[in-house]
Amino acid sequence: MIHLGLIGYPLSHSLSPRIHESALAAVSLQGEYLLYPVAPGDIGGLAVLTMRMRAGELQGLNVTIPHKQAIMSLMDELTACSQAIGAVNTVTVHDGKLIGHNTDAPGFQSDLAKFLRNTAAQKKALVLGAGGAARAVVYALLRDGWKVALAVRRADLSQARALIESFEPQAGAKSMDLLLLESGDLDRLGNGLELIVNATPIGMFPDSEHSPWPQGCPFPKGAAVYDLVYNPRQTRLVRDAQAAGLRAKTGLGMLVEQAALSFACWTGRDVAREILFAAVEA
Predict the structure, then answer these.
(1) What is the pTM of this model?
(2) Which residues form the catalytic set?
């Protein structure tokens, strides 16, 4: 029997058990996926769970906020993706060694490709936020040839500068711009933008009527909007963007994609995405 789990705090990811339990059933594996609340800063709590993996009691772990960076110090190895992003969301064990993966970036990249299908040649994107989710998004976009700009609150400028500095070698000649997340700065974007990605938690339930986009600031014409928030199913940002005539969607597809990739890391089995979406809808 395979034992899997999710580390997080607070545990608001009620969809994860449904997704992974449906994946286990789809490939005829006996198992369970449990939630493990660990308080912020409790490195001891993280260590207990990693020791259970080394002992063979757990075969895999997902890691969510606020532990994606802290758990890195407990890993024996990091994949190139997790090391570049500076965050781990999936842990596997191989020959007694714990390996930290990041499936957020490829999960986002896969779902974004389905959403955009045909992308304009300029490939200019604006990412809102500079936290762990933004790092995964920026990593994926740069690898796919996008020119990326960040927009953040004034309080997050130092964090954004650190993010830009860490990705400078990957960005190369396509240097990253930094803007304040307020209408005066965003007005300078003009209409050459193809994509806006919200990588902040603004708009997440229960604060569903909030949007990270400044009130009164028009959206760039022709841009697509991708909101990583998936609870509620239609965020304020998505509704406002659609009302302005833009294509827009939430991050539910990314949730499914990263979960499927994590499941493949643990079991070596691929699961049809339709099965996982059906579990979410149920």
Answers:
(1) 0.92
(2) 68
